[in-house]
Amino acid sequence: MIKVLIVDDEPLARENLRIQLQGQDDIEIVGECANAVEAIGAVHKLRPDVLFLDIQMPRISGLEMVGMLDPEHRPYIVFLTALTNTLSRPLKSMLLIICSSR
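The line above is the sequence of Two-component system response regulator; the predicted structure tokens follow.
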């Protein structure tokens, strides 16, 4: 079973992702968080295998949050965004660095 944590400040986005994932037999949604502060605690407590993480959230972004997680115990991360498919070059570079540092 793959343990998943959903992190997004938009309730509708969390609900839509939950609905999509609930139909999968090998996925268990262990929690949902509306911000990075909640999510950091949930990652430590729930130990998810995969973190679905919104990039743009108030106060602490998803990208900033990743830097706050212990690299030794960081789950796999799937970044979520409502941005268009024209991500800026610096953002693409930052995502590559974060994803490859696991």
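Note on the example: The chain has one domain: 2-100. The radius of gyration is 13 Å.
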